Amino acid sequence: MALRIGSANRDLMRRMNEASVFGIIHDFGPIARTDIAHLSGLSLATISGITGGLIEQGIVIEQSAGESTGGRRPILLAINRQAAVAIGVKLTNEHIIVALTDLGAELVELRSAPLGTDLSPDAVVEKIVRVTGELRAAHPERRVIGLGVGMAGIIDRDEGICRFSPFLPWRDVPLRDLIQERISLPVFVENDVNALTLAERWFGEGSTSLNFLVVTLGRGVGMGMVLNGELYRGGRDGAGEFGHVTIIEHGRRCNCGKDGCVEAYVSESSLERAIRDATGNDIALDDAITKAEAGDETIAAVFAEAGHIFGLALAGMISVLNPTLIILSGEGTRFIDLLMPTLRDALAEHSFNHFFDDVRLVVEPWGDDVWARGAAALALDDYFHPADVRTPGIALAAPAAGIQGKGGHRRPTGNPVR
């Protein structure tokens, strides 16, 4: 028995070491072997053995030599982003968007399909399997590492269960298992804003920040949080319901049934209602945006009020969480310029102790591909940092002095506004 336990422990240690090295190359590459040893605490011999195997598999490549520190210039290691692909599915109440990405979360191909009238789990899963199958068939030479699904609602990520969806008639649907039964891939299910936040953590603006928020505007208002380098999900995986923070007592009625929620002032439907109340006319939101940008003071005042309330609520998050970065994304970014003046004023005035002075505010260009790439990042995250052998803290460390850090796959992609 003792021999079997020892063998199992050695196998686990080997897998942990391999995962640690692989994750470091992803997080800090292009990077020299000596710097991998410095970050991981492993010997150079162990590093050479692991990286040699990764290179042989084609997953890691050697790049041009780095800067010399007095001896021979070191060869740098980086992830071969073309070695495999991941699939991401953004699920809405009307359609699915399916993205095929490389290992750097860069888009290879994007497809979409309407859901139709049958929104039962079986019917939706059938469409997901069909579209992803068509996408895989179009790229038969590419190895697929996994499939991620992002959707609105309360998601039990560990069990892959949709506990509640605000847009689909679902409760306690074992979505992961339903999909995994039909395809031979690892499947990961997550709240869509958390998936988007994870993508920002590893591949976007958040790759240089350990504490940041992603706030999405559109049909609803959502929030993803990375605290000390880790995606924060909360006790029941329900963290981030920023849109349902009460900001005005006895205020406007929200779709959730409460009064005075942030969403009751900033979501697309709430803005349309406020514009109708202000003008006496039913005006489509896109038309209202055009009118406000052209100088309609009445409609512009509605957006200005929304910006102030949004900023007031977000200032509370800044005071509590002290992030260094806030990323604004979602369909609502198309009217963010109309919110921004009053939003910034409220953030500056109401954030505690000038916390906002240290915050970088970025608007992330929005499109269907952004959400689907976020879902693909679920599979990518597990590929680079497998949950069963993850070592807490190793991927969070900043590069030591002189270490080549954060390669080209983590270039900023958003539009900074301050």
Shape: globular
Overall average pLDDT: 87
Name the quaternary structure: single chain
Residues in helix, %: 25-40%
Specify the structural class.
alpha/beta
| Rg result | 23 Å
Order of helices and strands: HEHHEEEEEHEEEHEHEEEHHHHEHEHE
Uncertain segments of ≥5 residues (pLDDT<50)? Answer: 1-5, 392-414
Main beta-sheet strand count, sense and barrel state:
6 strands, mixed
Report the portion of residues in β strands. Answer: 15-25%
* CATH fold-level assignment of the largest domain: Nucleotidyltransferase, domain 5
How many helix segments?
Answer: 12
Tell me the name of the CATH homologous superfamily of the largest domain.
Answer: ATPase, nucleotide binding domain
* Domain module count: 3
Give the class-level CATH name of the largest domain. Alpha Beta
Question: How far is the first residue's CA from the last residue's CA?
Answer: 62 Å
Identify the strand order in the major beta sheet.
Answer: 13-12-11-14-15-16
Number of strands: 16
List keywords for this structure.
alpha/beta, Arc Repressor Mutant, subunit A, Nucleotidyltransferase, domain 5, 3 domains, five-stranded mixed β-sheet, about 20% strand
Task: Summarize the SSE layout with pairings.
Blueprint: H1 2-28, E1 31-32, H2 33-40, H3 44-57, E2 60-65, E3 75-79, E4 85-91, E5 95-102, E6 107-114, H4 121-138, E7 144-151, E8 154-156, E9 161-164, H5 175-180, E10 187-191, H6 192-203, E11 212-217, E12 221-227, E13 230-232, H7 263-266, H8 268-279, H9 285-293, H10 297-321, E14 325-329, H11 336-350, E15 360-363, H12 368-384, E16 415-416
Parallel strand pairs: 4-7, 7-10, 11-14, 14-15
Antiparallel strand pairs: 1-3, 2-3, 4-5, 5-6, 8-9, 11-12, 12-13, 15-16
